[in-house]
Amino acid sequence: MNKVLILDFGSQYTQLIARRIRELNVYSVIEPCTIGIDKIRKHKPNAIVLSGGPNSVYDKHAPSLDKSVYAMGVPVLGICYGMQLSMKLNGGTVQASDKREYGKAVMYIDDHKDLFYTLPARIVSWMSHGDSTTKLPKGFEKIAHTEHTQLAAVADKKRKIYCVQFHPEVVHTEMGTQIISNFLFRIAGCKADWQLEDFIEKKVNDIREQVGPEGKVVLGLSGGVDSSVAAVLINKAIGKRMTAIFVNNGLLRKNEATYVQKVFRDHFHINLQYVDATSLFLKHLQGVTDPEEKRKRIGHDFIHVFDEEAHKIKNVDFLAQGTLYPDVIESVSFFGGPTAKIKSHHNVGCLPETMKLKLVEPFRELFKDEVREIGRKLGVPEKIITRQPFPGPGLAVRIIGEITRERLRILKEADAKVEKIIRKYGLYEKIWQTFAVLLPLKTVGVMGDQRTYENVIAIRSVNSSDGMTADWTRLPYEVLEEMSTTIINTTKGVNRVVYDISSKPPATIEWE
Fold first, then answer.
1. Is 169 considered catalytic here?
2. 104 with 505: CB under 8 angstroms?
3. pTM of the model
4. Active site residue: 33, 101, 163, 167, which one?
5. Coil vs helix vs strand at 490
6. From CA 465, how far away is CA 509, in angstroms rounded?
7. Lower CB count within 10 Å: N or C terminus of the chain?
8. Over the stretch 199-239, which tens digit does the pLDDT of each residue have?
9. What kind and span of H or E run contains 461?
10. C-beta neighbour count of 317 within 10 angstroms
């Protein structure tokens, strides 16, 4: 099986590079840039990709690379920081730019023979850099440029080293997947020989080996895509030695607890233990407004409740979670690389040292759409597969500021109306996420000739393929109008609705 080795220099998009490569059915693995040349050689990669990163190549502690990588005879693609480092290590010059180039930029193709094969004369590319190459190393030539970056893409065709200053892996770059495809197949000669069926078979065997012939697993079941598909996969591996525990933290969507119990008891016939821990979670969140503190408290309470429930089952050694790649990369670099931290996730890095259970996380290397496809292959019903993502900390990160029972009531009612209207217009399965957010302010309004001073609801709707990047949804005006009118008229305590038109990056999908 072909393999592409991705070396992580700290980019928030490193996992996205892996996702794009896997979309093209080529196996990819990520390692920190610090692994050393011997381990790089042990991988026996068909191609190497150098990720972007937040540093300047001239920073005192900037991550680097053994330059003998370029002499391995393996095709190399350097992206952003990966390009600048390649230029420096091969004898070129990189300098701070007079003007930082961030966001969309028109790129003009100077050479269509290989990396940009079949691309038009110009495309929109996504830039994010403060340094630029000013002098090419020997053997390199320019193959693309922008108005502000004359060396936007370069190549040493003899050694098959290609470098781009932009990010082909993000959706904002036109034909970015085609560029990556050209590198993999036209330049590196890779074969599309990796399938999700291979992943399923491997994970089933991995779970059996990890748990052993007598081991038992408790699963954190929420009713969302990740935990549901994990339940089916783990059940395929070890059968009835798995028990699903559903913790109601009080931060679920309206009627969520009843729905989850009905689906998994009646449809899947899973051994389900239900725990209503609403009072515990809300007590520990009282007066807390900092989003990181919210996540940490919810994470700790979640695991502690699980620990207690798991001890009621005899001889349980493992806790299963539906942790995904985006959860990990935004909390800390999964592979030990220097990736910058964005936020903590409830199921990543918040495990108490006293927790006795070992973790089983079959989807820690996957993105949401990959998990959905695995679910389909395992026979999970579409109603579960197509459910929109829901954050682990629940509505806690959609209530900006303090969490109270009254504020929870308001958001649950507003959010339920948003989902109902989206489904009414046939948009639910076409949109990545649509939800309501309760803002920490009140505004003046007029209702029935009387002055009101009530809460503001923000509606967030985004389209994405993996959660790493996202663009706000251009919802029809009549949909927005019905949402606003319905929420204000039927949700006590709300007199204003606003719509969020921010993309990721620079914003995140969730508000906290």
1. yes
2. no
3. 0.67
4. 167
5. helix
6. 13
7. N
8. 899 999 999 999 999 999 999 888 888 999 999 899 899 98
9. strand 450-463
10. 17
The distance in angstroms from the start CA to the end CA of the chain is 41
Q: Tokens for 2? A: 């072909």
Q: Model confidence over 433-466: pLDDT tens digits? A: 999 999 999 999 987 778 889 999 999 999 997 7
Which residues lie closer than 8 Å to 296 by C-beta, 6 or more apart?
A: 344, 350
d(CA 397, CA 298): 11
What's the one-letter identity of residue 381? P
Distance between CA atoms of 412 and 367, rounded to whole angstroms?
27
Residue 361 to residue 142: CA distance in whole angstroms: 44
Catalytic pick among 31, 101, 169, 365? 169
Does the annotation mark 80 as catalytic?
Answer: yes
Please give the Cα distance from 479 to 440 (Å, whole number).
25
Whether the bond into 476 is cis, omega within 30 of 0: no
* Contact in structure between 44 and 3 (CB atoms under 8 Å): yes
Read off the tokens for 174. Answer: 């036109």
How far apart, in whole angstroms, are the C-alpha atoms of residue 350 and residue 298?
9
Tallying the residues shown for the chain, one arrives at 512
Selecting among 80, 163, 190, 350, the annotated active-site residue is 80
